[in-house]
Amino acid sequence: MRFNRSRIWLGGLAGGVIWTVWSFVIGQFVVTNARYVAAQNAGLFLKTPRYPFFVAQWIVLLFILSIAVAHLYAWARSGLGAGPGTALKVGFLAGFFAGFPGNFAQATWSPVSRALPFGWMVEMWIGAILAALVAGSLYKDPTPAK
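and the corresponding C-alpha coordinates:
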Protein backbone atom coordinates (compact mmCIF):
# COMPACT_ATOMS: atom_id res chain seq x y z
CA MET A 1 0.00 0.00 0.00
CA ARG A 2 1.27 3.46 -0.92
CA PHE A 3 0.75 6.48 1.30
CA ASN A 4 0.67 10.16 0.49
CA ARG A 5 3.52 11.16 2.79
CA SER A 6 3.24 14.87 2.04
CA ARG A 7 -0.42 14.79 3.13
CA ILE A 8 0.49 12.83 6.25
CA TRP A 9 3.00 15.55 7.16
CA LEU A 10 0.59 18.34 6.27
CA GLY A 11 -2.13 16.76 8.41
CA GLY A 12 0.31 16.13 11.24
CA LEU A 13 1.56 19.71 11.23
CA ALA A 14 -1.96 21.16 11.04
CA GLY A 15 -3.04 18.78 13.79
CA GLY A 16 -0.07 19.98 15.85
CA VAL A 17 -1.25 23.57 15.55
CA ILE A 18 -4.74 22.60 16.71
CA TRP A 19 -3.42 20.43 19.54
CA THR A 20 -1.12 23.24 20.70
CA VAL A 21 -4.00 25.73 20.77
CA TRP A 22 -6.16 23.19 22.62
CA SER A 23 -3.33 22.58 25.11
CA PHE A 24 -3.02 26.31 25.75
CA VAL A 25 -6.79 26.69 26.26
CA ILE A 26 -6.94 23.79 28.73
CA GLY A 27 -3.84 24.97 30.58
CA GLN A 28 -4.96 28.57 30.87
CA PHE A 29 -8.72 28.36 31.29
CA VAL A 30 -9.60 24.90 32.61
CA VAL A 31 -6.68 23.75 34.73
CA THR A 32 -5.59 27.39 35.21
CA ASN A 33 -2.35 28.83 36.38
CA ALA A 34 -3.91 29.45 39.81
CA ARG A 35 -3.93 25.69 40.50
CA TYR A 36 -0.29 25.44 39.41
CA VAL A 37 0.73 28.35 41.63
CA ALA A 38 -1.17 26.88 44.60
CA ALA A 39 0.57 23.52 44.09
CA GLN A 40 3.95 25.27 43.81
CA ASN A 41 3.33 27.30 46.97
CA ALA A 42 2.33 24.10 48.80
CA GLY A 43 5.64 22.55 47.75
CA LEU A 44 3.95 19.98 45.48
CA PHE A 45 5.47 21.37 42.26
CA LEU A 46 8.87 22.82 41.54
CA LYS A 47 8.96 26.59 41.13
CA THR A 48 11.29 26.30 38.14
CA PRO A 49 11.18 23.49 35.59
CA ARG A 50 13.89 20.83 35.45
CA TYR A 51 14.02 21.15 31.68
CA PRO A 52 14.86 24.49 30.11
CA PHE A 53 12.40 25.91 27.61
CA PHE A 54 9.68 23.47 28.74
CA VAL A 55 6.93 25.22 26.79
CA ALA A 56 8.85 24.98 23.51
CA GLN A 57 9.66 21.33 24.21
CA TRP A 58 6.01 20.61 25.02
CA ILE A 59 4.92 22.15 21.72
CA VAL A 60 7.49 20.06 19.83
CA LEU A 61 6.18 16.93 21.57
CA LEU A 62 2.60 17.78 20.57
CA PHE A 63 3.70 18.15 16.96
CA ILE A 64 5.52 14.81 17.08
CA LEU A 65 2.40 13.16 18.52
CA SER A 66 0.23 14.82 15.87
CA ILE A 67 2.45 13.54 13.07
CA ALA A 68 2.29 10.06 14.60
CA VAL A 69 -1.51 10.30 14.77
CA ALA A 70 -1.62 11.37 11.11
CA HIS A 71 0.43 8.28 10.22
CA LEU A 72 -1.91 6.09 12.25
CA TYR A 73 -4.89 7.55 10.42
CA ALA A 74 -3.33 6.87 7.01
CA TRP A 75 -2.56 3.28 8.02
CA ALA A 76 -6.04 2.72 9.49
CA ARG A 77 -7.85 3.93 6.35
CA SER A 78 -7.19 0.69 4.49
CA GLY A 79 -9.00 -1.38 7.11
CA LEU A 80 -11.55 1.05 8.50
CA GLY A 81 -12.23 3.24 5.49
CA ALA A 82 -11.66 6.93 4.94
CA GLY A 83 -13.47 9.63 6.82
CA PRO A 84 -14.14 11.24 10.17
CA GLY A 85 -15.29 7.99 11.80
CA THR A 86 -11.88 6.44 11.28
CA ALA A 87 -10.14 9.63 12.40
CA LEU A 88 -12.28 9.70 15.54
CA LYS A 89 -11.39 6.08 16.36
CA VAL A 90 -7.68 6.70 15.81
CA GLY A 91 -7.76 9.90 17.86
CA PHE A 92 -9.75 8.28 20.64
CA LEU A 93 -7.27 5.41 20.97
CA ALA A 94 -4.17 7.60 20.65
CA GLY A 95 -5.59 10.05 23.18
CA PHE A 96 -6.38 7.25 25.61
CA PHE A 97 -2.84 5.89 25.31
CA ALA A 98 -1.31 9.36 25.68
CA GLY A 99 -3.57 10.73 28.39
CA PHE A 100 -5.19 8.15 30.59
CA PRO A 101 -2.65 5.80 32.24
CA GLY A 102 -0.14 8.38 33.44
CA ASN A 103 -2.77 10.78 34.66
CA PHE A 104 -4.72 8.01 36.37
CA ALA A 105 -1.53 7.24 38.29
CA GLN A 106 -1.05 10.95 39.05
CA ALA A 107 -4.62 11.23 40.36
CA THR A 108 -4.05 8.13 42.49
CA TRP A 109 -0.63 8.83 43.96
CA SER A 110 0.13 12.53 43.65
CA PRO A 111 -0.88 14.86 46.49
CA VAL A 112 -2.06 17.55 44.04
CA SER A 113 -5.72 18.24 43.33
CA ARG A 114 -7.29 15.61 41.08
CA ALA A 115 -8.40 18.49 38.85
CA LEU A 116 -4.83 18.78 37.55
CA PRO A 117 -4.42 15.21 36.26
CA PHE A 118 -8.01 15.27 35.01
CA GLY A 119 -7.26 18.44 33.02
CA TRP A 120 -4.03 16.95 31.69
CA MET A 121 -5.89 13.81 30.61
CA VAL A 122 -8.58 15.83 28.83
CA GLU A 123 -5.87 17.91 27.19
CA MET A 124 -4.17 14.83 25.74
CA TRP A 125 -7.31 12.85 24.89
CA ILE A 126 -9.28 15.59 23.16
CA GLY A 127 -6.10 16.99 21.61
CA ALA A 128 -5.38 13.64 19.95
CA ILE A 129 -8.95 13.43 18.67
CA LEU A 130 -8.77 16.95 17.24
CA ALA A 131 -5.39 16.27 15.64
CA ALA A 132 -6.71 13.04 14.07
CA LEU A 133 -9.81 14.78 12.71
CA VAL A 134 -7.68 17.54 11.17
CA ALA A 135 -5.19 15.05 9.72
CA GLY A 136 -8.02 12.93 8.37
CA SER A 137 -9.70 15.88 6.73
CA LEU A 138 -6.45 16.83 4.96
CA TYR A 139 -5.35 13.37 3.88
CA LYS A 140 -5.83 12.36 0.26
CA ASP A 141 -4.76 9.06 -1.29
CA PRO A 142 -1.76 9.31 -3.59
CA THR A 143 -2.56 9.79 -7.25
CA PRO A 144 -1.85 6.65 -9.28
CA ALA A 145 1.26 6.70 -11.44
CA LYS A 146 0.54 6.76 -15.18
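(Above: one complete record from the training split.) The chain has a mean pLDDT of 93.
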